[in-house]
Amino acid sequence: MIPQRRFTPRSAEDMTEKLEKLIAANEALKNEIAQRIAAQERSDSIALISEENPNPVLRVTIQGHVLYANGPAKMLLEFWNIDIGDPLPDEWCRAVVEAEKKQTATERELLCHDSFFVLTLQPVVDADYVNLYGRDITKRKETEEQIVNFDDLTGLPNRALFQDRLKQVLGHARRTGKLVAVHLIDLDHFKDINDTMGHDAGDALLKGIGERLLGCVRTSDTVARIGGDEFGVIQVEPNNADSIAILAQKLLKSLEQPFKIDGHDVHSNASIGITIFPDDAEKPEEILRNADMALYHGKGENRGTYNFFVTKMNDEVQRRRAIEDDMRAGLERGEFVLHYQPKLHIRSNRITGMEALIRWNHPQQGFMSPAEFIPVAERSKLIVPIGEWVLREACARNKAWTDAGLGPIKVAVNLSAVQIHETDLTATVRGVLEETGLDASQLELEITESLAMRNAEATIELFTELSEFGVSVSIDDFGTGYSSLSYLKDFPIQRIKIDKAFIDDIGSDENPGAIARAVTTIGHSFGMEITAEGVETEDQLTFLHSLDCDEIQGYYFSRPLPEDQLGEFLKNFEETEAIRLSR
Ligand code: C2E
Ligand code: CA
Ligand code: CA
């Protein structure tokens, strides 16, 4: 309605102006009334056919004002908070104008509470209105969501949905002041199961694990598969850290019983990293990152346990990153050196080999042990250039000693997982031998037992290639892994190095040196040579001699030496040996 106003005319022009305004207002009013009457008529006519339609039907003016809505469409009006005669929300008005202008039907989606609708905006030729026909597509959306948001194999939410849920849960927790815990669960040695038993078995295991985890939580919690062998649990509103730890224990315990797969008992241990909101982090990405850090930390220290995130881990990550940067620069500045530990061939009393061991001459921290920086290098893949440098340096040095008339002896180089699984090692080795001119028979590569077992097929293939052009391979730290010697006989390996732990055993009371004895006997029966690592006493040497063990390496004979001292050691040893033999 036009508001009534009192005014006092002051001049003839004034009067004319006011009069014009009045006439215009009157016109507008007439129009409005006419439109309403027309709307009522149209509404009556459309109502005849639409009232029984179970889907929403609307008719709106070409500007988007609602003329009519059938029963099911009332829900939409309520949702938009509008009535008959009111305009639709802005974006819908725009869509109506657009459809009318183009005179083509257009479709738009609408999420109304829990229901999904598609609304078809249908302009009508020569009419001054547009019809909207709705269809409920909630079911179809659910299936689509199922495909996009759920993991095919386990049927659990995938990473995307996990993150979505986490966001929602955090929003709620922020308002209510409650806690949220995220448990990140990573399977230990899952890759081994995949490698040794095949992917179907791996899949079956993942499915079984998902089911067991699901059995541990409340319905309000979320269990998701967020990576290959990684699961995540969102624990909603735990009372305190105790209830979080209790759930973590429960999750681990649920995986303890073996899984029956293809008639085999398959064991699967897991480690868990935990972050608590809001104590450790506020944002979803931070929460996941911290849980991951806690997980990593746990894996390094002891597998099969759960670990809460502590800020200290952040410092550790910083420290690791600093070492990484330093290491990269150190490699360029030539701060790495090799020490060589000579090995004594017991029967012939000759030096037949030496192991190259890397050292880092750090500008601030002095000589750093490989135990400190090799794991960092492995994680950051810096081990690839470092490993290649070690190989080239060791081969070049050995060639120089041979040329100087010392030896010929073999140099053994240690290899890391990344070098074996992610580089073309055969090509690298071949290239380095060509470049340095060292004879392939003077190079030996050491691979730890656990590493060789990790992907047995690939390892056998690699070893075969290497031995084909004359490089020998030895199994390092033997006895610390889980393999049996009979399994190893299929590997083309020339040497087994018994881990220091079993040499230390020689002095013990119970069954002294039993493992060293067994390994030597069986290894020999497969035609392999045996080296004892970490020999520190004469008693140990005597015992090993009695077993007919081939080589010893250890402080008793020599510590690892810098290259100039090793040269001297070789020369002196050859001379004294010559004296001894000539007597
Ligand atoms: P490893 O391959 O088992 O090397 C033998 C380790 O035992 C060496 O430690 C050596 O100094 C030490 N050792 C030798 N004899 C004795 C002994 O009688 N008593 C005692 N207590 N220890 C003895 P190091 O040099 O600290 O190397 C540690 C580990 O670092 C090596 O264990 C190896 O796994 C790794 N490593 C060293 N150099 C390289 C390298 O160039 N590349 C790679 N990937 N790893 C390396
Ligand atoms: Ca070694
Ligand atoms: Ca070793």
Give an overview in words.
By secondary structure, this protein is an alpha/beta fold. The protein contains 21 helices and 22 strands. An 8-stranded mixed barrel has the order 13-14-16-17-18-19-20-21, surrounded by 5 helices. Strands 2-1-5-4-3 form a 5-stranded antiparallel beta sheet, sandwiched between helices. Strand 13 and strand 14 form a beta hairpin. Mean pLDDT is 88; it is low at 1-9. The structure holds ligand C2E and calcium ion (2 copies). Residues 476-477, 497, 533 line the site of one calcium ion.
Helix count from the secondary structure assignment: 21
Q: What's the count of strands?
A: 22
Low-confidence stretches: 1-9
Q: Assign a percent range to the helix content.
A: 40-55%
Overall mean pLDDT stands at 88
CATH homologous superfamily (4th level) name of the largest domain: EAL domain
Question: Which CATH class of the largest domain applies here?
Answer: Alpha Beta
CATH architecture of the largest domain: Alpha-Beta Barrel
Briefly summarize what is shown:
It contains 21 helices and 22 strands.
Secondary structure blueprint with pairings:
Layout: H1 12-50, E1 57-61, E2 66-69, H2 74-80, H3 90-102, E3 106-112, E4 115-123, E5 129-136, H4 138-149, H5 159-176, E6 180-187, H6 190-197, H7 199-214, E7 222-227, E8 230-236, H8 241-254, E9 259-261, E10 264-266, E11 270-277, H9 284-301, E12 306-308, H10 311-333, E13 336-345, E14 350-362, E15 366-368, H11 370-380, H12 383-403, E16 410-414, H13 417-422, H14 425-436, E17 443-448, H15 449-454, H16 456-468, E18 472-478, H17 485-488, E19 495-498, H18 500-504, H19 514-525, E20 529-532, H20 538-547, E21 551-552, E22 561-562, H21 563-582
Parallel strand pairs: 11-12, 14-16, 16-17, 17-18, 18-19, 19-20, 20-21
Antiparallel strand pairs: 1-2, 1-5, 3-4, 4-5, 6-8, 6-11, 7-8, 9-10, 13-14, 13-21, 13-22, 14-15
Helix pairs in contact: 6-7, 10-11, 12-14
The structure holds ligand C2E and calcium ion (CA) (2 copies).
